[in-house]
Design a protein that fits this description.
The chain has six helices and five strands, in the order H-H-H-E-E-E-E-H-E-H-H. It has 153 residues and is an alpha+beta fold. The chain has two domains: 1-72, Winged helix-like DNA-binding domain superfamily/Winged helix DNA-binding domain (Arc Repressor Mutant, subunit A), CATH 1.10.10.10; 76-153, Dna Ligase, domain 1 (2-Layer Sandwich), CATH 3.30.1490. The protein has a three-stranded mixed beta sheet with strand order 4-3-5, with no helix packed on it. Strands 1-2 form a two-stranded antiparallel sheet. Strand 1 (57-60) and strand 2 form a beta hairpin. The longest helix is centred in the last third of the chain and has 19 residues, at 131-149. It is globular, with a radius of gyration of 19 Å. It binds zinc ion (2 copies). The site of one zinc ion (ZN) has 8 residues, from helix 5.
């Protein structure tokens, strides 16, 4: 009799996320734990769902990726991330007031929040000190606005 394999919450999937220190997609995680004998995507997804449920990891929606929680104990399922548009650095912010504010704003309208994700995008401190990154960012933004108000049709 075989039972579906269930991994301990702080098992190899969590270990892979922790050691990466950066967001990983489910398939990147699968690659990382393959040599530990885990080859079935559902096993990885189940482990990820549990980690998210237990607040040990968070899902970064816009990247379709997962990241280990930086807090020793994350009391709330909501997490806010900053994402650097230049180097891709993702950091979890300490923003419990903002999370509470969003929740209050929603419940004030009679809305029950089940899940909440928030992301801020821009440049990280390292990239802000890098003239090349600043120039690339400026070029990206001028291209963006060019797309919207371009008249060359
Ligand atoms: Zn967290
Ligand atoms: Zn950066």
């Amino acid at each position: 009799m075989t039972r579906p394999r269930t991994l301990p919450a702080r098992g190899p999937v969590y270990g892979a996320l922790r050691s990466a220190g950066a967001p990983m997609t489910a398939y990147q995680i699968l690659d990382a734990v393959r040599d530990q004998g885990i080859t079935a995507p559902p096993t990885v997804y189940r482990a990820l769902n549990r980690l998210v449920d237990e607040g040990l990891a968070h899902r970064v929606e816009s990247l379709n990726a997962y990241v280990a929680c930086v807090h020793s104990r994350h009391g709330d399922a909501a997490a806010i991330f900053s994402i650097c548009e230049n180097c891709g650095l993702v950091a979890e912010l300490e923003a419990t007031d903002a999370v509470a504010g969003l929740r209050d704003a929603a419940s004030g309208r009679g809305f029950r929040v089940d899940r909440m994700t928030a992301e801020v995008r821009g440049l990280c401190g390292v990239c802000l000190d890098d003239p090349k990154a600043l120039a690339a960012s400026a070029a990206r933004h001028s291209t963006d606005s060019g797309d919207h108000d371009g008249h060359d049709h």
